[in-house]
Structure formats: structure tokens, C-alpha cells
TrEMBL record:
GO biological process, one term: glycogen catabolic process
Family stated for the protein in its record: Belongs to the glycosyl hydrolase 13 family.
NCBIfam families to which the protein is assigned, alphabetical: glgX_debranch
Name this polypeptide is given: Glycogen debranching enzyme GlgX
Protein keywords: Glycosidase, Hydrolase, Transit peptide
Keyword Transit peptide included in the entry's annotation: yes
Ranges where the Glycosyl hydrolase family 13 catalytic domain occurs: 177-588
Highest rank taxon of the organism: Bacteria
Native organism: Butyricicoccus porcorum
């Protein structure tokens, strides 16, 4: 944004600066002139502040100025008619210092809720383009009465020190999904600034050692954690996850370790810069499908009062379509909203150098103004083709709460959009816990889900593979609980998904039985092994690598406590699990054939092939629970064949497995056997890996074996 403003300032200088910046009239005690109406929001110009807001149905607009933290305004400036162009109101106000004031709007116009018109000059409205929001900087607190959202002006001269994005190809990413606060809020995190951007930055050495190269942050747009504050069983419940945005352009200042008046966002920039410097990209989980204003019973603090029928999908009686499950649905394909979303993403890319976006309930982004799905949604087309977003990862959660499920059919504009592959999650969960009839589907998922994403139409990077994410069980809980335990949420355990495809291994919850705990640990390793050996982009939930638990809560959206916070004590307790995850991430990086096409193998092995307990037999039956997948190509140096075989046994009995025959002089070496103890479940050096001289191995119950082809015995 600074670059945009600098360029704009240069243009204004050339085009007779006086005609743009010369005060024309006094309003509310301040000298003013018509503003720069092509740039939405509020920003600093030489000598003044430009305020621009768009409202199609307004009959009057007032700019309301407050001293910081004061309840009464010190100035109210009505926009005169000559400061309006079409439905855009724009004014430059001279003599304001950006660190001394906060601002909002009052908009007058017709009030008729049945027609979707909610204009009311009594409402104080937050600028939809506000770059920072005042009054939200202390987590979990706000004034009990008289709270109002207000915008602040941001002036950032952030020095990126020449650090650039690592620009990692999609197939080479290993995505680590985390919550900024929950990642380091627990006292065991041992950071100086727990629960903040700085706290996360202190953990970068850990992330680098683990091997992940992309961090996906759950929502960091400004949201109000106090929105649905309540007390249940003596515990304060908040909107902890943050999937209820207040302002799309503003970072959540409660995630900053220090107050950043006029420099809001610099701590986030430092985090992005540090992650980039350490070879990691940053992906934001963005929520454009609804806002915190809710339905007709919700508050009016921004979009509703600015242009309710523009920003939201409305039923004929003026009530709100609720395809989000959160009260309202943003009218994403209205031209004004469409423009705002594009400008928002550009802003985050330019100002914060974000590398990608994961779109929450992205199917809503493809709905028409009447709520029906569109064949070629204008917004999705624009995001895919936008030159400023070229090279930026676009990842869709390809469903919504209104029943639209588009995994494999999301409007993608060729290979531009990737998707959270919900079918990968469901199929792998079912197969790995031993369900029948899942062998064929599982083999498709491991090979990149080409049945869902044909390479000729979607490219090779459309599938983001995951078994766990923030929404649902952690990996530890997936094999510890048969059913959800969400009583702490206060909804009588009615919230959250009931069909989790989980398995408690015979005992619900924690147990001292060693055999059960050993099985649970093995199943977690099985999941990690398969995830890292599947074509597509792997993603896993922070803490899964060391057995973090939410105690059976699969919808911890309101739990700002030990249920959601990562307990770093578990890292030492479950060190062998962490080390296995780390090994598998580095194994994936070491073998390019797992990530995508390479040069063909000299041995003429097919690039991919499917097997069962017998080689080349992919005639899977209902009771097939042993499958094998072989990848073959050339290594990164193009000096030798890179052949990897993954054998999966989800049966409760062991099986003898015959491996595909290798060329003369090559033998299968066992790199991973999840049935083994931590001393030998994964082996780093190929010389130390056991050799299968006969080409036959015994695959223990509920285990995964990974073998690599090597020359010599």
C-alpha cells in the first residue's frame, strides 16, 4: 500500500498538486477539499488525510472523529455534495495527526428492513476498508458499555531488509496449520511473548528443524473474541478461533505483543519476514463468506449500515441467507463486494507479502446474488487471473454450510485453484482404521486423486491432502475417542461433527493399557507416513507431531484454555512421534518422485503402480486391507533411479507381502516400519536399512512399511 500511495503522490505532483491539495472549504472546524475517490479507505497524504467510502443507498454521510479512547467525538464533518462522485464520498481533511485520532462514519438513508435497507444516522460505522481497528488490542477485554468499532490510520515504513518470499512450488510445500494464540499461549511454550505473533516467531527454529516450509495461520483479520462471550461451568468461553471477521484489511491487534499505534501490523510483518528468511511461506486462512454482524438479530457496526443489501445475500423479505451457518452470507459476486475482496487480497500481498490464502467455506464465493451456485463466478475468475495475485497460492475449502460440496468440482479456472481434499481425509481415515471397501479409494488418494483432479484439467497441484485440521479431532484424539466430547462448549454435546471416522482402539479416552497406547501411537505414525508419501500437498495440524490432545473436543472454537492451547510438555513425552514426523517430512523432500513427475526411471518401472499383497495386483475386493503403491522416476541429481514402495496393512492380522521385482543388482531396503519401536521405526542412512533379499516381507497388523530401491546388498 505504501508503494501505491507513493506512486499516487508522484502522479499528483505532476498533475498540478495545488488543484488536488488546496483547501476549498472549512467543515466542522477543519479545512477540506475533494478527496482521491479512486482509493477506498483512509490514508495519509502530504498535508492531510484522505477519507473515501462508498454507499449506494446513502442520502448523507458524515465523518466522525474521536480523540483516542474518548467516547465523544471532537468533530463531525458532513460530506458536501461536491465531494461525492456517483456513490463514492471522498474528502481530504487537513491538519490531522494520525496518532491522535480514531474515525468512523454515520450514514443516513431509507430504513426499511423488509427491503434490506438499514441506513440510520444513529449508528456509528466502521470503515469496511479500515487498516486498523481501535479498542481491540487487549485480548479478552473491552469496555462493558459504549463499545464502538473505530478505524485508525496506519503509516508503515517497514523495512523488509531485502528478504523475499522463498517462492516454493505447490507440490513441494509441507503446510503446518496453526492458531497464533494457541500455538504459544500455554505456559509450557517457554516463549517471552506467549500467544502473539512474536511468540510464534520465537518458535521458528523449531519449525525449521521439523521441516515444514509453509505456515497456515488461522484467521488473523480483526475479529471480536468477545462477540459471543459466555460463562459455562465457571469457564469463560470466547470466539477463540476467529472465524467471525470484523474488518478484512486489519490485522488482529490482540495478537501483537506491543501496542502499535499508527504502526499496526508491523509485528506481523516481522513474523512474515522471519519466516521467509528461514525458507517458509505464509498462508492466511481468510473468511469472506460471512461477518460478525450476524443475522437480523445481530449488531450493525459496519457493512449493514453502509450498504446492507450490497454486502449481504438477502431473502425477499429482507432476512439473511445463511449458507455460512453463522447468521449471514457475504454477497461476494456483487461488483462492489467483488472489488473489495480483490483489493483486500492485493493489500495483504503488497503490504504483508503473504504467499497464499486458504478460503474458508469457499463455495460461498461462487454463489450468485440470489444464492444459487454460478458456473463461472466472476470473483473466482478475477482472483485466478489477477496480475498482482499471480503466483499466490489460492486454496479453497470447497464446500459451505448450505449443502454445496464441490471437492473436485470447484470452479478452478484450469490449474489456478487448489482445494482442501475432504475426500482424502475421509477415505484415509476409514481405511487406516480398518474399514472394508476402502482400498480402491485410498489408492486413488495416495496417487493424487486424479479421479477428482484430472491432470489435464486441474494440473498436478490441486489436492491439499490432510487427515486432520483445526476443525475436528486432533490426530491423537482421532485414535483415542470414538465420539466427540464437546460438553465444555455448553451446547449439550450437540455441536461439532458426529461422523468423525475415528477409533478409540478399544478404550474411550486416556488409558494406562500399554497395548492400547502402543496401537494408538502406531496409527498416528501410519497416518503421518501415508500423508507424506501421497501425491499432492500435505497439511497437518500443529501439535499432531507430538500427540497434542483436545481431550475429545472436536469443535474447540470457543475454548481459549488448555483444551485448545498446545501443551509443549507433550513434545518431550512423545519425542519419538515428533522424530517420526520429522523423518517423514525430510523423507518426502529427499524423494522427489513422491511430490510429482520426474524423468522416467532408467529401469523402466512405471511412474506409479498399484499392488496388493501380490505385486501388480490391484483387483481390490471388499475385504482388501493390504495395498501397495510404487513411485518410480529419477532422483534430483538425475544420477539414479528413485523408486519408493509404500505398503499399507489396515488389517488386524499380519500379512505376507510380495514386493514388485526390481532390476538385477537392486534390492528393496526397509526405510520405515511403523510396527517397530522408536529405535528402528525409521532409518536415516540407506546403508543401515534392512535388506529384503527375497522380495518378500511380513507386514505386521495395522502397520505401514516404506521401502526404497538401492543397488548392492
Amino acid at each position: 500500500m505504501e508503494t501505491i500511495l507513493q506512486n499516487m503522490e508522484s502522479v499528483l505532483r505532476v498533475r498540478n498538486r495545488k488543484s488536488f491539495f488546496h483547501p476549498m472549504r472549512e467543515i466542522g472546524g477543519f479545512k477540506t477539499c475533494p478527496g482521491y475517490c479512486l482509493q477506498n479507505g483512509a490514508f495519509e497524504l502530504p498535508g492531510g488525510i484522505n477519507f473515501t467510502i462508498t454507499s449506494q443507498g446513502a442520502t448523507s454521510v458524515e465523518l466522525v472523529l474521536f480523540k483516542r479512547r474518548q467516547s465523544e467525538p471532537f468533530a463531525v464533518l458532513p460530506f458536501p455534495d461536491e465531494y461525492r462522485v456517483g456513490s463514492v464520498y471522498s474528502m481530504i481533511v487537513f491538519g490531522l495527526q494520525i496518532d491522535e485520532f480514531e474515525y468512523a462514519y454515520r450514514i443516513g438513508g431509507p430504513y426499511d428492513p423488509k427491503k434490506g435497507l438499514l441506513y440510520d444516522k444513529k449508528n456509528l460505522l466502521l470503515d469496511p476498508y479500515a487498516r486498523a481497528v481501535a479498542g481491540q488490542s487487549a485480548w479478552g477485554t473491552r469496555p462493558q458499555t459504549g463499545f464502538e468499532y473505530r478505524g485508525r490510520i496506519v503509516s508503515s515504513n517497514f523495512d523488509w531488509h531485502g528478504v523475499r518470499s522463498p517462492h516454493i512450488e505447490m507440490q513441494d510445500l509441507v503446510i503446518y496449520e496453526t492458531h497464533v494464540r494457541g500455538f504459544t499461549r500455554h505456559e509450557s511454550s517457554d516463549v517471552t511473548h506467549p500467544g502473539t505473533f512474536d511468540g510464534l516467531m520465537e518458535k521458528i527454529p523449531y519449525l525449521r528443524d521439523l521441516g515444514v516450509n509453509a505456515v497456515e495461520l488461522m484467521p488473523i483479520f480483526e475479529f471480536d473474541e468477545m462477540r459471543d462471550m459466555r460463562v459455562h461451568d465457571g469457564k469463560l468461553l470466547l470466539d477463540y478461533w476467529g472465524y467471525n471477521p470484523v474488518a478484512f484489511f486489519a490485522p488482529n491487534t490482540a495478537y501483537s505483543a506491543e501496542h502499535e499505534f499508527t504502526n499496526e501490523g508491523d509485528e506481523l510483518r516481522r513474523l512474515v519476514r522471519a519466516l521467509h528468511k528461514n525458507g517458509m511461506e505464509v498462508i492466511l486462512d481468510v473468511v469472506f463468506n460471512h461477518t460478525a454482524e450476524g443475522n437480523e438479530d445481530g449488531s450493525i457496526f459496519s457493512f449493514k449500515g453502509v450498504d446492507n443489501s450490497v454486502y449481504y445475500l438477502l431473502e425477499p423479505d429482507g432476512k439473511y441467507y445463511n449458507f455460512s451457518g453463522c447468521g449471514n452470507t457475504v454477497n461476494c459476486n456483487h461488483p462492489v463486494v467483488h472489488q473489495m475482496i480483490v483489493e483486500c487480497l492485493r493489500y495483504w500481498v503488497i503490504e504483508y507479502r503473504i504467499d497464499g490464502f486458504r478460503f474458508d467455506l469457499a463455495s460461498i464465493l461462487g454463489r450468485n446474488e440470489d444464492g444459487t451456485p454460478m458456473h463461472n463466478p466472476p470473483l473466482l475468475e478475477s482472483l485466478a487471473a489477477d496480475p498482482l495475485l499471480a503466483g499466490i497460492k489460492l486454496i479453497a475449502e470447497a464446500w459451505d454450510a448450505g449443502g454445496l460440496y464441490q471437492v473436485g468440482s470447484f470452479p478452478s479456472r484450469g490449474d489456478r485453484w487448489a482445494e482442501w481434499n475432504g475426500k482424502y481425509r475421509d477415505d484415509l481415515r476409514c481405511f487406516l482404521k480398518g474399514d472394508s471397501g476402502m482400498a480402491k479409494a485410498t489408492s486413488y488418494r495416495i496417487l493424487g486423486s486424479q479421479d477428482l483432479y484430472p491432470p489435464t484439467k486441474r494440473g498436478e497441484c490441486a489436492s491439499v491432502n490432510f487427515i486432520t485440521c483445526h476443525d475436528g479431532f486432533t490426530l491423537y484424539d482421532l485414535y483415542t475417542y470414538n465420539k466427540k466430547h464437546n460438553d465444555a462448549n455448553g451446547w449439550d454435546n450437540t455441536d461439532g461433527e458426529s461422523n468423525n471416522n475415528s477409533w478409540n482402539c478399544g478404550v474411550e479416552g486416556e488409558t494406562d493399557r500399554q497395548d492400547v497406547n502402543d496401537l494408538r501411537r502406531r496409527l498416528q505414525k501410519n497416518a503421518a507416513a501415508v500423508l507424506m508419501c501421497s501425491r499432492g500437498t500435505p497439511m497437518f495440524l500443529a501439535g499432531d507431531e507430538f500427540g497434542n490432545t483436545q481431550f475429545g473436543n472436536n469443535n474447540a472454537y470457543c475454548q481459549d484454555n488448555e483444551i485448545s492451547w498446545l501443551d509443549w510438555n507433550l513434545l518431550e513425552k512423545n519425542r519419538s512421534l515428533h522424530d517420526f514426523f520429522r523423518y517423514m517430512i525430510h523423507f518426502r523432500k529427499k524423494h522427489p518422485i513422491l511430490r510429482g513427475h520426474t524423468k522416467p526411471a532408467e529401469s523402466r518401472f512405471p511412474e506409479t503402480s498399484l499392488h496388493s499383497a501380490k505385486p501388480w495386483d490391484a483387483n481390490y475386493q471388499e475385504d482388501t486391507r493390504v495395498i501397495g503403491v510404487t513411485f518410480a522416476g529419477r532422483n534430483e541429481d538425475d544420477t539414479a533411479d528413485d523408486i519408493v514402495h509404500i505398503a499399507l496393512n489396515s488389517h488386524w492380522e499380519g500379512h505376507q507381502v510380495q514386493l514388485p521385482e526390481l532390476p538385477d543388482g537392486m534390492y528393496w531396503r526397509i526405510a520405515v516400519n511403523t510396527f517397530n519401536g522408536p529405535e528402528s521405526d525409521c532409518i536415516e542412512n540407506i546403508e543401515d536399512m534392512p535388506v529384503s533379499h527375497s522380495g518378500i516381507v511380513w507386514l505386521e497388523p495395522r502397520s505401514v512399511m516404506i521401502l526404497v530401491a538401492a543397488e548392492g546388498k
